[in-house]
What we know:
Number of helices: 0
Distance between the termini: 16 Å
Organism: Gigaspora margarita
Helix content: under 10%
CATH topology: Immunoglobulin-like
Radius of gyration: 14 Å
Strand order of the largest sheet: 3-2-5-6
Strand content: over 45%
Order of helices and strands: EEEEEE
CATH class: Mainly Beta
Largest sheet: 4 strands, antiparallel
Protein name: 29306_t:CDS:1
CATH architecture: Sandwich
InterPro entries: Ig_E-set
Number of domains: 1
Amino acid sequence: MSPDPLISPHLTTITIAGEEVDGLIIDPVSSLVITIGATVPVQPPSVFPVCNATDCPIFTGTKYTQTVTFLLNATLPPSYQIDLTIGNINSSSPQMSFLHDEILACAMATVS
């Protein structure tokens, strides 16, 4: 993550790396959702496609890396969480929920 710790307002870059496991398949409609906040997000979540037609689907055992950049333009509380979630977003849900509540991958960090 850069900058580390986060600064607002500032362009923020996050790199994720992982290996697909458990028989789940990440496909071209999967999204990476980055949410920053305490009990509520400090700004709307940032959403990025995980892969495109040339590098998808990602099958079990496949290693992948992704770097995304977004503008963090909100006041950060003294303590907050950074949530990274990969799944297929339910396009009819205004709350950015995932289809069938299925999360394909996730990570969380608490900053205090």
